[in-house]
Amino acid sequence: MKRAAPRSTLRTLIKRHKPQLCLAAYADLLVHLNFLLFLHRLAEEARANAFESKSKTIKSEHTMAAAKVILKKSRG
Amino acid sequence: MVTLECWPALKPWLVCFGRLEMHLPDFVPDGTVMTALHMSRKKKKFSISEFERGADERLPRNLGKWCYSLSLSLSPPRSLQISLATPVPPESVEKRGLIRRPKNRKAVNVEAFEGGVEQNLLQIKAQNHMAESQATSIIGMTMGTSDTEIVLSNTELFAQPQLGEQSQAGFSAPEQKLLKGKNPVQGRKASNAAIEAGVLSDVDAKEGMTERLQKKDLAQDPEHTDQMATESRGRAVSLSSEQREHTRGSSYAEQLPGADELVAGIKYRRSQRELSWGLLCKLLLLLSKNVVKSPTSARTRRLSRHSTAMAALYPEQSGRKLMKEAVEREAELDGVAVIGEVGDSEEEEMTEEEAETEEPESEELSMKTPAFIRTKAYRPSPLLSTPRSLKTAASRFSPKPPLAQQAAKRTVMAPRRKREPALPSSLVKKIFSHYAKVPVARDAFKVVEKCVEVYFRQLSNDLEAYTMHARRKTVQEADLELLMRRQGLVTDKMPLHVLIERHLPLEYRKLLIPVAMSGNKVIPHK
């Protein structure tokens, strides 16, 4: 069920945004962890929104509202 | 460090750990003292050789951390000479897996193994690069390389998708092959009229213009070589496929009368190739048209040939690079008298490498002077029609700075490539739906995808801020931990390691969380 972290892709993504930066040996794993936790929080928030509107599936508006909150939270 | 003399003291430990089952990395060198933990229990006394034998048997199955540390501590060869004598365990089949490995009883094994793990993870990436590097090394100056060789020698950053199988005398096989694969229009043999009519794929005004240009050349010089035909074809095709904006080139085309029949038959072979190179040809052709109005015959001819040949060889992606190179080439060519001949040979015999470097130049020039090129290219072509002469000429030109041009080509390709990397959407979908636990609408995934992009941007900004604050250039794990702390993911109640253990798969856990082993060993090795 769990898939391997796309380590090289993560590194290229960050390199694209910040070419002057480079990642330590296992830092990209922690980035992946961070990414997983971000998605986790996003999913939880979206699910909560969906339940509030009494729908059994997550719709895009639920996700949008959730995204606003979570992105603000994960600004660090 | 545990030595042999300490064995009796360790006996009770063996008993305690007898039933422990722990996972160890497989790289523990065999032959070292592995605990036959189960076996040790049954004996009051045990000899080293028995112990080792048991360890050998048990090694692949049951590696306790204690065993590992013990083995490591016992790794010095002198203490294990007895056990090391037989690399192959006498009985156990389980050891087969370890036999393959060269026995390395130094502590470095840990690092080697981890290095191997890392390499495995990056293997796929490496393979691509290796293929390219190998190909480039293989290429050399071969003329008329086989298809496979040409495929190998393709130094393109992207693997070329279409590679038809076609070998034609005097023409580089790859060109034809590539063109054929890419050429959607198979009915090249049709008369030019058909082409003019816009049978070409991506029919454009350009395409028609290029056709006309070709005709013009043909009309003026009835003796075309295949090169010329294909060149003009390729140009036409490239123009049509690539440049829609360029209407300047068409001016030349319009002037040409229609001499379709000549062109059609000869161009067929090349046209296929050239169609695939439409992008390159288009760019170069336009440039050539605009810039050079009355180029020298040799230069134009060479450029034209190059452009067509190269266009055929190289994928559209290299079009930009080719343009730049073509500009360079043009400068070089000025004043060269015999270039035309060389151009012919180059065009045909150049390997992909060469073509890469030369293609942009020729294409550009040819594009700049489509009409002139064709007319002038025709005249010298009969002189060098023989493949031998072409080959020699090509070989002469092959030493041209391929590396520099390849490097230039790579840099041009790089910005293109940057757009591509993005997290695989399937992965994002899977993770999100797993965390959501309820069905998710498809539109919601798009929102999630956008969120992810924003998130990564924020993440890189934050990481940069932290790293710069620490006056470093490399993002360390400490930076990540600080980020998570600030995000509220890591608190005093929830340490980072717990998060790691919860969410990451086992292999990553081992890499991230340092574990202290006996004997002052820490995994992963710091």
UniProtKB/TrEMBL annotation, chain A:
It is found in: Chromosome, Centromere, Kinetochore; Nucleus. One of its GO terms (molecular function) is protein heterodimerization activity. GO terms for biological process: chromosome segregation; kinetochore assembly; mitotic cell cycle. The chain crosses the membrane at residues 21-39. Its main location: nucleus. Keywords: Centromere, Chromosome, Kinetochore, Membrane, Nucleus, Transmembrane, Transmembrane helix. GO terms for cellular component: kinetochore; nucleoplasm. InterPro entries: CENP-W (IPR028847), CENP-W/WIP1 (IPR052484), Histone-fold (IPR009072). Pfam families: CENP-W (PF15510). PANTHER family: CENTROMERE PROTEIN W (PTHR34832). Belongs to the CENP-W/WIP1 family. This is Centromere protein W.
UniProtKB/TrEMBL annotation, chain B:
Residues 213-226 have a biased composition (Basic and acidic residues). Residues 18-214 form the Centromere kinetochore component CENP-T N-terminal domain. InterPro entries: CENP-T, CENP-T/H4_C, CENP-T_N, Histone-fold. Residues 418-515 form the CENP-T/Histone H4 histone fold domain. Its main location: nucleus. The keyword Acetylation does not apply. Component of the CENPA-NAC (nucleosome-associated) complex, a complex that plays a central role in assembly of kinetochore proteins, mitotic progression and chromosome segregation. The CENPA-NAC complex recruits the CENPA-CAD (nucleosome distal) complex and may be involved in incorporation of newly synthesized CENPA into centromeres. Part of a nucleosome-associated complex that binds specifically to histone H3-containing nucleosomes at the centromere, as opposed to nucleosomes containing CENPA. Component of the CENPA-CAD complex, composed of CENPI, CENPK, CENPL, CENPO, CENPP, CENPQ, CENPR and CENPS. The CENPA-CAD complex is probably recruited on centromeres by the CENPA-NAC complex, at least composed of CENPA, CENPC, CENPH, CENPM, CENPN, CENPT and CENPU. Identified in a centromeric complex containing histones H2A, H2B, H3 and H4, and at least CENPA, CENPB, CENPC, CENPT, CENPN, HJURP, SUPT16H, SSRP1 and RSF1. Interacts (via N-terminus) with the NDC80 complex. This is Centromere protein T.
